[in-house]
């Protein structure tokens, strides 16, 4: 089959329409990602613009060229808008219609319609700009670990760059032996590239939407919904990995067990809404005072824990004291109520590769108990002496019961 522009135009119309409907169907299945709907409608609009381009010669140029290009530019603007929405940014109304408006104004300037190269360069610049803006939006959201972002960024940047080559190619390659626009060699090449790009980018965008959904489901299963930090399951999993890495690398670390003081009293006095805010304020203040290499999680109720990676004893104590003091300052007043919340912290410093997270938390619990015994709002470090003190206290509590039984 002879691969001419007319054939490519027909194939492009069908492909754009089918991909647009496919994206819209995917959006209906998961309407939470509105960007997919924008991408679907952008494909349908491109199909319409190609239909109008294909009617060149049988309908007025103002429709087959001016209006068709305006629709085409708007479709690329919609793809860019979808990228903005995908990463939580707002719609830019001026940017959405700016390319089409500039094109229609530009075409009305005296003498422009006769300058084919100038019109091609201007239209190519508009498409390249929207395509690069789309790539930039995906680049801005790269902190979200979606693997499919990177091929999307690369393809969009490459496609935009190729569009800017339209005018140089027009000068190097002839339109056609008959000077027919639809017989142009370079236009055939660009049309084929655009077709392949349309197919590839549509499936990559679908992959991004699917990956986003799966990532959020996975994150929801590992994040405490109230505080936004790791839940017990995620903390134990990640904490185990950190402790294992520390033992393999021969690095020291620390585990903190943290409990809000008199939390039941706070709930009783101020209500559960304030109690929830206290938990949130602690999670926010604690998270801002640990490093990316560390992890903090909510074990349940008012109990939290943290694993600090590669810290010596002095540094670990400084970090624990900062967590305690920063929260105490932040919780003096919460939502206009004089809460005066504090935390007690039990810390165990780990240089022994034989301990796992459960062992370290059990030791930190000994220190936490001692912090509560000594007045709360303090940091205590686990030691063998603390373990002995707790055992002695337990024996002392049992002694009267033994004496009573003997007397009886």
What does this 3D model show about the protein?
This protein is α+β, with helices and mostly antiparallel strands and 408 residues long. The protein is 67% helix and 8% strand. The protein has helices at residues 5-29, 35-54, 61-86, 93-107, 116-140, 149-163, 166-172, 185-222, 232-249, 263-270, 272-287, 313-330, 357-373, 384-407, and strands at residues 253-260, 295-300, 303-309, 343-350, 379-381.
Mean pLDDT: 85
Binned strand content: 5-15%
Question: How many domains, as an integer?
Answer: 2
Shape: elongated
**Cα end-to-end separation:** 107 Å
Q: What sequence of helices (H) and strands (E) makes up the elements? A: HHHHHHHHHEHHEEHEHEH
Structural class: alpha+beta
How many strand elements?
5
Low-confidence stretches: 175-183, 401-408
How many strands, what sense, and barrel or not for the largest sheet?
5 strands, mixed
Order of strands, widest sheet: 2-3-1-4-5
Calculate Rg over CA atoms: 32 Å
- Helical fraction equals 55-70%
Number of helices: 14
Précis, in short:
This protein is an alpha+beta fold. It contains 14 helices and five strands.
Using brief descriptors, characterize the structure shown:
8% strand; alpha+beta; five-stranded mixed beta sheet; Alpha-Beta Plaits; 408 residues; 14 helices; elongated; 2 domains
């Amino acid at each position: 089959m002879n691969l001419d522009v007319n054939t490519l135009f027909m194939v492009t119309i069908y492909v754009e329409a089918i991909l647009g409907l496919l994206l819209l169907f995917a959006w209906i299945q998961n309407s939470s990602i509105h960007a997919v709907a924008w991408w679907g409608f952008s494909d349908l609009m491109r199909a319409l613009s190609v239909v109008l381009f294909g009617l060149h010669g049988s309908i007025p140029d103002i429709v087959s060229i001016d209006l068709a290009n305006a629709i085409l530019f708007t479709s690329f603007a919609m793809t860019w808008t979808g990228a903005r929405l995908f990463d939580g940014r707002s719609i830019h109304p001026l940017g959405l219609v700016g390319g089409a408006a500039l094109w229609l104004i530009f075409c009305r300037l005296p003498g422009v319609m006769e300058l084919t190269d100038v019109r091609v360069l201007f239209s190519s610049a508009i498409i390249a700009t929207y395509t690069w803006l789309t790539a930039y939006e995906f680049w801005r959201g790269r902190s979200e670990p979606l693997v499919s972002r990177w091929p999307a960024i690369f393809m969009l940047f490459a496609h935009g760059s190729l569009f800017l080559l339209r005018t140089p190619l027009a000068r190097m390659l002839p339109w056609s032996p008959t000077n027919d626009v639809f017989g142009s060699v370079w236009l055939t090449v660009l049309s084929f590239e655009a077709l392949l790009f349309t197919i590839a980018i549509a499936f990559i965008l679908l992959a991004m939407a699917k990956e986003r959904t799966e990532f959020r489901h996975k994150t929801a299963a590992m994040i405490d919904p109230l505080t936004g930090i790791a839940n017990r399951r995620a903390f134990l999993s990640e904490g185990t990995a950190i402790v294992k890495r520390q033992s393999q690398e021969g690095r020291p670390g620390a585990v903190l067990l943290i409990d809000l003081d008199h939390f039941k009293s706070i709930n009783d006095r101020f209500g559960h809404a304030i109690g929830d805010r206290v938990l949130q304020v602690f999670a926010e203040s604690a998270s801002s005072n640990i490093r990316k290499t560390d992890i903090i999680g909510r074990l349940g109720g008012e109990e939290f824990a943290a694993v600090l990676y590669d810290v010596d004893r002095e540094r670990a104590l400084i970090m624990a004291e900062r967590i305690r003091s920063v929260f105490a300052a932040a919780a003096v007043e919460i939502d206009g109520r004089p809460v005066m919340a504090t935390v007690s912290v039990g810390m165990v410093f780990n240089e022994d590769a034989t301990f796992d997270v459960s062992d370290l938390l059990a030791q930190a619990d000994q220190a936490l108990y001692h912090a509560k015994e000594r007045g709360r709002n303090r940091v205590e470090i686990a030691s063998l002496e603390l373990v002995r003190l707790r055992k002695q206290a337990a024996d002392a509590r049992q002694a009267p019961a033994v004496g009573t039984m003997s007397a009886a």
